[in-house]
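Input.
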Amino acid sequence: MEAVPARARAYVVCVTVAALLCLRTLPTARAPWGAVLLLAGLYAGSELVARSRFVGTCYPVLLAGAFLLPPPAAALVALPGALLSPVPRRPAGLRRVWRAAQLALAVWAAACVHWRLGGRVAVVEAAFPYALVPAGAAVLAFCLVLTVLDGGILTLADRVPPRRAWRGSFSRSLAPIAVHGLAGLMMAVLWRSPYGPVAALLVLLPMCVAWWAFAQYHRERAAHQATIRALVQAVDIKDGYTRGHSERVGQASMMIARELGMDDERVETLRFAGILHDVGKLGVPTRLLRKDGPLTPEERRVIELHPEYGHEMVRGIRFLGEARAAVLHHHERLDGSGYPYGLAGDRIPESARVVAVADAFDAMTSTRSYSRARPVAAALEELRRCAGAQFDPRMVRALIHALGRHGWRPSVTADGTPTLPGTPLPGPGGGARDSVGRGAS
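Output.
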């Protein structure tokens, strides 16, 4: 959204107008203005803290407002925090307006649903478990509005295909928002109790602990990413011909893992495996990596040591998990003729079988010092031909299906030339066989 298309700006204007229309009955609403101001200030403060700690937004306060206030007053609670919170990317003004309008609409919808189902009386009387019914419906409405609006802006501003923009986003966001909804309901019930707003604020204490834990996880994850980025940059500097190869192999490995139905944690691990699979090239002489023409048998043996070098480098990095096995075994072949240990069949770790296919695919579709890029279709045909002997057929099928659905859009090849359909086929010894023979892909 840094260079926001005109249609996305028009979409933001339309959503903003809709949010203002939700506030049109505010002058006639019998709202407890003290509660409105307190909740708005509380949300603004918690939003500033949450954004600075990379822990998202403070939905419990917004949902508490939806459970306590008339719909237009509840929508008003979101505006100061959304308009004042820091924005990491430009244009900051447009992003703040968008966030304010989106949240105002979502809170207004949640408050409408809650009040129509008698939630106000249930909160005042602390009528459990009935109070959970209107609160749950309000959370669903809140989540649905956010999902619909987010999908629209992704489609118009970032040109994400509509199917991808909305697919799975509602189900992914519902669980965390439901937890925030329960916290908001507890805040609302305590607010209406004899203990008053002070007791309601205590509900935020466990949420603050959770945010702190999430912030620690975010920092740890950022450190992991920095470690991987440093290793990959070192490889790219050493072997300029394959710059970008590691990231593309990580992307292809992730596509295969998702197609195989792996959970998100394993998908991320396979992405790390693809990115780091060639880190052992740091131990290989640069003259061999950049050599034009065939390798001597002695040079080939030196290059074939790079999986073991790589495994030694990442062996102590615990968060990589099974990615370490992929670094060591991604040049093994299903028929047992690969290296470094000649493993065959299921003895080759699954992560290594995934990366082997991703590695060979990108090697074939990228221009190197010793081969020209193949078209994607030709590369996939070569993978099919080698399936069963060199590659796991299941991984090959997964990549083919994933590419059929999502396509393949590498940024540039190693020499800075885009990979275009119709690029001539490499000569004998290229492609999938070359990824084993040369050992440098």
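Residues 204-238 form the longest helix (35 residues).
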